[in-house]
Write a structure and sequence with these properties.
6-stranded mixed β-sheet, 2 helices, globular
Length: 130
Amino acid sequence: MSRIPIVDTDIHAGTANVLMLRRAHWPEDKLDFLGGFVDEGEEIETAAIREVKEESGFDVELVKKFGVYDYTDRGEKRLHVFEGEVTGGTLQGSDEGVPEWVDLAKITKNDLAFPQVHLQVIQDILAEPS
């Protein structure tokens, strides 16, 4: 079965602080990584850069591919997570929500829009050596 590609980008500010999006749409008011669906014919790296710009106003350079995760409850979706570095732009919200810096170590399952996959991403980020 071919999976629908989704991208997220992890942008750090300090050891555990990451830029996340406080969603304006379902699941409303929950935290989500900056990201979204890959457009047809679009490279996943291009989609990751585009989504960060659309949702935060920041220009980013992708530093590395952090990992690939399959949704446990939405098996047709595959999440590609990148680590990104801000190279320009101005932090701003969008129709999708409001970006905010969050301490990953303090996030609970109830804070997350999609805990079924993002809890594992957060654990992996926190476990990575600085």
